[in-house]
Write a structure and sequence with these properties.
The chain is α/β, with parallel strands linked by helices and 306 residues long. Helix content is 38%, strand content 14%. The radius of gyration is 20 Å and the shape is globular. Strands 3-2-1-9-10 form a five-stranded parallel beta sheet, covered by helices on one side. A three-stranded antiparallel beta sheet has the order 4-5-8. The chain has helices at 3-9, 29-44, 63-75, 91-103, 114-128, 151-159, 170-177, 217-227, 242-253, 283-288, 293-299; strands at residues 16-19, 48-53, 85-86, 107-110, 165-168, 181-184, 194-197, 207-210, 232-236, 259-263. It has a single domain, classed as Rossmann fold, CATH 3.40.50.620. Bound molecules: glutamic acid. Residues 20-22, 54, 221, 235, 239 line the site of glutamic acid. Glutamic acid (GLU) binds next to loops.
Length: 306
């Protein structure tokens, strides 16, 4: 399957929105806000609205959580068109996307583990006194020591059973694509809107796939958005910076760029991001406590909007 050719054949005259939760926990108020707003914008624009389950992390995702999500969305009166797409059913498609990226010559196997990267960064700080750069999520950037390792050596290490992740040489990739932008209908953390300049280098040589899972979140999301003909990505502001990585992959894979709308995050009372383990804000526990849809809409400040 040629992902880019498939994406070109899609009729883009109808806009397509999607809600894409990961079934690795219960939906909380933040997800409810995202789903309700997304759904509202889709219906207002006479667009199609899709549900996609992002379950590539098979160890943490489950069908039980997926069914719970479906129940919560019914309760919120968020309905979707077509059958839901489950990413774990499409690993072969992401593997094809990875092949296309590998053919660009911009990918390599990175053999350093998360612990090794952390220790490398700590050592550099001790040695030089300079801070080692971190990505927008706060993780140290990949040092890329194996970036120029000959392919035969990489193959040998992989055959010998060393664990690795496929990474992109981001500096070389940026050189290849030239400057990239996206259209932001919402707002970034510093108020960014309109045409936003992508800065994929902020992520360093990010992961495209792992030894045993042929995709990462970044790769799967751009492939799916293209295959599903998504024209409008409405999601939380916590994913604003990820859009830079997505634009890079879309360009390298020859895929269209959707419009993006990054919305406000619903924060916990202490100002922190809501987490899936915080039972008190899960939709299920609020329902069990007897709250109705209207109560949740009011709590989210969406009265009169949805
Ligand atoms: N699956 C991601 C999440 O649960 C959302 C991805 C996206 O909307 O692009 O946060």
């Amino acid at each position: 399957m040629d992902i880019a050719a498939g994406a070109r054949e899609i009729d883009h005259s109808t806009r397509v929105f999607r809600f894409a939760p990961s079934p690795n926990g219960e939906l909380h108020l933040g997800h409810a806000y995202s789903a309700l707003l997304n759904h509202r914008l889709a219906r207002e624009n006479h667009a199609r609205f899709l549900l996609r389950l992002e379950d590539i992390d098979l160890a943490r995702c489950s069908h039980a959580y997926e069914e719970q999500i479906v129940e919560d969305l019914h309760f919120l009166k968020v309905d979707w068109d077509e059958t839901r797409r489950r990413q774990s059913d499409h690993f072969d498609v992401y593997a094809k996307g990875l092949d296309v990226l590998r053919e660009t010559g911009l990918c390599y196997r990175g053999f350093m583990t998360r612990g090794e990267i952390r220790r490398f960064a700590e050592l550099r700080v001790e040695e030089t006194g300079d801070l080692w750069p971190r990505d927008p999520d706060g993780s140290p950037l990949y040092p890329g020591l194996d970036r120029r390792q000959p392919a035969e050596e990489q193959d040998r290490r992989a055959r010998d059973g060393e664990s690795f992740a496929w990474r992109i040489d981001v500096a070389a990739a940026v050189e290849r694509t030239g400057p990239l932008e996206w259209e932001e209908w919402g707002r970034g953390p510093d108020g960014e809107s309109g045409r936003v300049v992508a800065k994929p280098a902020e992520w360093g040589d990010f992961i495209l796939a792992r030894r045993d899972v042929p995709t990462s979140y970044h790769l799967a999301v751009v492939v799916d958005d293209a295959i599903q003909g998504v024209t409008d990505v409405v999601r939380g502001r916590d994913l604003f910076y990820a859009t830079s990585a997505h634009r890079l992959l879309q360009d390298l894979l020859g895929l269209p760029a959707p419009r993006y709308h990054h919305h406000d995050l619903i924060l916990a009372e202490d100002g922190r991001k809501l987490s899936k383990s915080a039972r008190d804000t899960s939709i299920r526990s609020l329902r069990e406590a007897g709250l109705q849809r209207a109560d949740i809409v009011r709590m989210l400040g969406l009265e009169g909007v949805v």
